[in-house]
Amino acid sequence: MPTYPFDAQIPRETDVATGLPIGPGVADPAPATRPKRVVLDGRFCRLEPLDQVRHGDQLFAASTPADAANRFLYLFEEPPQNRVEFQVWLDNAALSTDPLFFAVIDKRTGRVEGRQTLMRIDPPNRVIEIGSIYWGPAIARTEVTTEANFLFAKYAFDALGYRRFEWKCNALNAPSRAAAERLGFTYEGHFRRAVVIKGRIRDTTWYSMISEEWPGIKRAYEGWLSPDNFDPQGRQKKRLADFMPHGD
Questions:
Q1: Low-confidence winner among 5-14, 21-30, 115-124, 190-199 (lowest mean pLDDT)
Q2: What's the CA gap between 164 and 182, in Å, rounded?
Q3: In order of start, what are the domains of the chain with their CATH numbers?
Q4: Among 45, 134, 158, 214, which is most buried by a count of CB atoms within 10 Å?
């Protein structure tokens, strides 16, 4: 029988009647709580439920940089062409409950510089995903986006009771794949010909972190985000990977 990368990690018990391996029972079968429109506040960023009036102008500005075509290439949406067109998208996004949109605010400037969602929300199975991520040029690859992911993960695991937090992306989106791995997600697999987006076939790469891993990952984020980890110029002293339970 072939073996697979996660075989040794699969939790199992033995079925008394058949002697075959089965998964362990669920101690608490109650569903997780659905996410709400709450503010998630951190040191570098604040996540606010998307509001089409309060956030509209700044999010439009963040979504229309000179390289918008590159930044939107792997997203479901096209780059907004004008403020009126963007308002239509914004009105729909603000009303959506799955995906549930949040504005990403850079606390250094107080400006909205991106958005992200909690999506594919599955309370009975306690599974939730971060997705539809647009982090604009002012915050991309900064402590703001690292903390933005941490705030979602902390909310999902600690406040809402989810067991699995997912990240999925276009398999050709190398920056997104690198971000997932840097942020502590585990690569799980490659789904071939998974969906059609913008008239093109997309293979999807799957990542996750699970509740058993979360305490160690949480400590890593807290260590990285600590003021002690930054010099007077705001530069990190140690990478997030250096704090991870298996960082290298």
A1: 5-14
A2: 18
A3: 28-234 (3.40.630.30)
A4: 45
